[in-house]
């Protein structure tokens, strides 16, 4: 059986991607943002998921105003980074997991969530920036990724409740997959920000912190936030936070908050990040305590190399 | 048909990109989308008015684009993720667009963000009904920018 072991939420500010691509991460402005993800990278390296489901939104890259799917699931074998006007980001091609993705699609559609299936799709900073923040900048992404693009650009996006329930359905789908896979699900976007019109620059840290608190403790309360409240309190683009509720819906009711980070600003946006683990995860992990022999052999070999080098 | 009233019309300084705006702004957004291609960027820059003719824009939309009036584009159905492509074609950073849309300078806008951004206080609604101190309800259309002015610059 496959299982969702943890959820990660993270902002996906495009300027964070630009700072990585232009090697500005050590500059004081950016160091403040990136240092908040050091522990997250360590956590991810330890957790080593077999698959990541990344809930994000497209920003007029793969979808223009011609076709606007509310939920679009990437079922392709790979997803190239999109050219967002300055050439594609220099990040590896995102490899998919077509088997699990189509299994999820079938399962959630029969559960009455009418997804759009994408067998060809480019992915923009909405997906690749959180990947960088959690996986760093490797030559190849360490695990396959299933992108789930949510419309939050054309009003109205799906409601927070609908998103949460889709998360529930995704979890059920993952748990009915025959393969033995550990899955981490990402909710991305947010937190408070408005990038359009005379009110641009709006930030509401109080709203954001309450949202983070409730994401752990009382997510059902968050599912009742109406769209008007997101836009009014957290900025027109703050409505992206409904995507975090898909991630949260896919987790257990009771979760352990293992890490949290919040800083203002990155460009126009309040950066929020949280890692939540399912408690059942501990039991599953216990079974895997003794490392496989090959891994042990590799460790011994490394020790040997180190000794002979010194 | 007159524009339908919505609860979010009460949010100041905000153009919600809804179905009606999307319909109205379709030509603006499709024009902006065309700027994803280098050859189109070149053609547009070579003769802007001529390039715009192919998109079935209204005269107001054409003027807003030529004048780079970003708020007017939003008002006429443009969406920021699309109009940002026009800004990029001009070689402008997003901060430039933000300064234009908020009637600020890039330096002041950046300082406001560093100081914690624009406060939601006084910026929740045109009617003021969502502000805790409703006695100070503002009817002003433009959102207040008091936080950045009252705080000293940090960093």
Summary, kept brief:
With 310 residues, chain A is α/β, with parallel strands linked by helices. Chain A has helices at 14-21, 28-34, 38-47, 98-110, 125-135, 160-175, 205-217, 219-222, 227-234, 242-249, 280-287, 293-309, and strands at residues 3-10, 51-56, 71-74, 78-79, 94-95, 116-118, 145-150, 182-188, 255-266, 269-278.
What are the main properties of this structure?
heterodimer; A: alpha/beta; Protocatechuate 4,5-dioxygenase, Chain B; B: 155 residues; mainly alpha; Protocatechuate 4,5-dioxygenase, Chain A; 2 domains
By CATH reckoning, the class of chain A would read Alpha Beta
> Which CATH top level class of the largest domain in chain B fits?
Mainly Alpha
Structural class of the secondary elements of chain B? mainly alpha
Sheet bearing the most strands of chain A, described? 8 strands, mixed
What is the CATH homology-level superfamily of chain A? LigB-like
Draw up the topology in text:
The complex is a heterodimer of chains A (310) and B (155).
Chain A: E1 3-10, H1 14-21, H2 28-34, H3 38-47, E2 51-56, E3 71-74, E4 78-79, E5 94-95, H4 98-110, E6 116-118, H5 125-135, E7 145-150, H6 160-175, E8 182-188, H7 205-217, H8 219-222, H9 227-234, H10 242-249, E9 255-266, E10 269-278, H11 280-287, H12 293-309
Parallel strand pairs in A: 1-8, 2-7, 2-8, 3-6
Antiparallel strand pairs in A: 1-10, 3-7, 4-5, 9-10
Helix pairs in contact in A: 1-5, 4-6, 6-10
Chain B: H1 19-34, H2 38-46, H3 48-52, H4 59-66, H5 70-75, H6 80-89, H7 94-102, H8 106-114, H9 146-150
Helix pairs in contact in B: 1-6, 7-8
Description:
Chain A has helices at residues 14-21, 28-34, 38-47, 98-110, 125-135, 160-175, 205-217, 219-222, 227-234, 242-249, 280-287, 293-309, and strands at 3-10, 51-56, 71-74, 78-79, 94-95, 116-118, 145-150, 182-188, 255-266, 269-278. In chain A, 40% of the residues lie in helices and 19% in strands. Chain A has a single domain (3-309), classed as Protocatechuate 4,5-dioxygenase, Chain B. With 310 residues, chain A is an alpha/beta fold. Chain A is globular. Chain B has 155 residues and is an all-alpha fold. Chain B has 2 domains: 7-93, Protocatechuate 4,5-dioxygenase, Chain A; 104-150, no CATH class. Chain B has 9 helices and no strands. Chain B has helices at 19-34, 38-46, 48-52, 59-66, 70-75, 80-89, 94-102, 106-114, 146-150. In chain B, helix 1 packs parallel to helix 6 (80-89) and helix 7 (94-102) crosses helix 8. Chain B is flat. Chain B starts with 18 loop residues before the first helix and ends in a 5-residue tail after the last helix. Mean pLDDT of chain B is 87; it is low at 134-141 and 146-155. Chains A and B meet through helix 9 of A and helix 1, helix 6, helix 7 and helix 8 of B.
């Amino acid at each position: 059986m496959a299982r969702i072991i943890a959820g990660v939420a993270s902002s996906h500010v495009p300027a964070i991607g630009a700072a990585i691509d232009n090697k500005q991460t050590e500059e004081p402005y950016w160091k403040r943002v990136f240092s908040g993800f050091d522990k997250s990278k360590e956590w991810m390296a330890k957790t080593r998921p077999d698959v990541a489901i990344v809930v994000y939104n497209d920003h007029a890259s793969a979808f223009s105003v011609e076709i606007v799917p509310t939920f679009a699931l990437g079922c392709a074998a790979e997803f190239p980074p999109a050219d967002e006007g300055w050439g594609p980001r220099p990040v590896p091609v995102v490899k998919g997991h077509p088997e699990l993705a189509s299994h999820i699609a079938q399962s959630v559609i029969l559960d009455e969530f009418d997804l759009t299936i994408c067998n060809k799709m480019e992915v923009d900073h909405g997906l690749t920036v959180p990947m960088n923040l959690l996986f760093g900048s490797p030559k190849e992404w360490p695990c396959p990724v299933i992108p789930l693009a949510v419309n939050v650009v054309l009003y109205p996006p799906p409601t927070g409740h609908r998103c949460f329930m889709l998360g529930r359905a995704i979890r059920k789908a993952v748990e009915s997959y025959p393969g033995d896979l550990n899955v981490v699900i990402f909710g991305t976007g947010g937190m408070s920000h408005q990038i359009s019109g005379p009110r641009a620059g709006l930030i509401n840290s109080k709203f954001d912190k309450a949202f983070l608190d409730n994401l752990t403790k009382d997510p059902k309360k968050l599912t009742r936030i109406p769209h008007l409240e997101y836009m009014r309190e957290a900025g027109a683009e703050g409505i992206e936070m409904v995507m975090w509720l898909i991630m949260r819906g896919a987790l257990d009711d009771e979760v352990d908050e293992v890490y949290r980070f919040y800083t203002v600003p990155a460009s126009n946006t309040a950066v929020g990040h949280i890692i939540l683990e399912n408690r059942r995860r501990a039991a599953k992990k216990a079974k895997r305590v003794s490392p496989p022999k090959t891994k042990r052999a590799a460790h011994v070999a490394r020790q040997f190399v180190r000794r002979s080098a010194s | 048909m007159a524009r339908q009233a919505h609860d979010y019309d009460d949010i100041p300084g905000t153009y919600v990109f809804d179905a009606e705006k999307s319909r109205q702004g379709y030509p603006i957004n499709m024009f902006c989308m065309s700027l994803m291609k280098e050859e189109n960027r070149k053609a547009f820059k070579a003769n802007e008015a001529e390039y715009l003719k192919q998109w079935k824009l209204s005269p107001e939309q054409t003027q807003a684009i030529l004048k780079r009036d970003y708020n007017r584009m939003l008002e006429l159905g443009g969406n920021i993720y699309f109009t940002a492509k026009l800004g990029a074609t001009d070689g402008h950073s997003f901060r430039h667009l933000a300064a234009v849309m908020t009637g600020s300078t890039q330096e002041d806008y950046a300082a406001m963000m560093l100081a914690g951004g624009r406060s939601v206080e006084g910026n929740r609604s045109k009617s003021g009904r969502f502000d805790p101190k409703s006695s100070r309800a503002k009817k002003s259309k433009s959102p207040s920018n008091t936080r950045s002015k009252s705080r000293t610059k940090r960093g």
